[in-house]
Amino acid sequence: MGRLLLNRLGGLLTTLLLSSVVIFGSLYLAPGSPENVLFGSRAPSAAARAAVRHQLHLDQPLPVRCWDWLTGVLRGDLGNSMVTGQSVADRVGTGLGTTLLLVAVSMVLVVLLGLGVGTVAALRPGRVDAAASAATSLSVTVPPFVASTVLIEVFAVKLGWFPSSGVQPGLAGHLHALLLPAFALALASCGFLAQITRNALREQLAKEHVQTALVRGLPRRVVLRDHVFRNALPPIITAAGLVTAGLFASTLVVESAFAVPGIGRLTIQSVAQKDFPVVQAVALLLVAAFVVCNAVSDLVQALVDPRLRTVGRTS
User: Fold this and answer.
1) Rounded CA gap, 277 and 291, in Å?
2) CA nearest to 153, candidates 180, 177, 176, 113
3) pLDDT one-digit tens code per residue, 165-204
4) Residue-wise pLDDT tens digits, 157-169
5) pTM above threshold 0.85
6) N or C: which end of the chain has fewer CB within 10 A?
7) What domains are defined for the chain?
């Protein structure tokens, strides 16, 4: 288990390092010049442009700028916003808690609805399974921006049960305001996890040893717990890790639709303003979230399945 943890940690650091280089290079190699953000529609003199480029270290070679940014990230210094001059860490940190809460609420909905619907569909073949399969097949095809539009129109505008935008003060206010965007964020993922759960449980139910245990008269509850659900957990855990990572990326759309002041909305605004330091920081956070979610998924699978711990020792 220790070797597996070290392998995942090494993979995490390597991925973050390579991603940082790619993120930095892709932004600064894009068409246009970053200092144009500060000048806007004005036509600066050559001296003014040179002074701003020197202040932003744009007159240095790209590898030097990349190295300075990487070492700054390691020190916790993400630079300053090119638009507001505020520290990038402060700008990102202001909305990070809201985004984490939104993803957490969405993941609770995904687990409850996805596992529940998938389990019912697997254990109740026939009409129940067909209805559940139809519902999940429909949900996975609904993009987050479509779900956001429909939910706002129905539950915020017509029924008035939830606010259509922003958040409210206090934890209870935050949860009430985030419940609608969380459902929009979780809808497609619920269907995906339900399909994975149904298929994994159906596969285990068809195993010979499960059928033998049922024929011998073992209680169905015990067989489901010890032989079906436990052996079906690995693919479900993998799917849950992928879903959690995907939720962070989908916040860009949902937070913009509901005007939620999180890092997803901040990213859209920063891209529109060409605020490169903020975009870099958020992109790195999204990559980190994706890698961490997958690493945690692997570790949880190793705890559930001892065979994976053996693989970690022999690799």
Assistant:
1) 21
2) 180
3) 777 777 787 788 888 899 888 888 898 999 999 998 888 8
4) 888 888 887 777 7
5) no
6) C
7) 88-314 (1.10.3720.10)
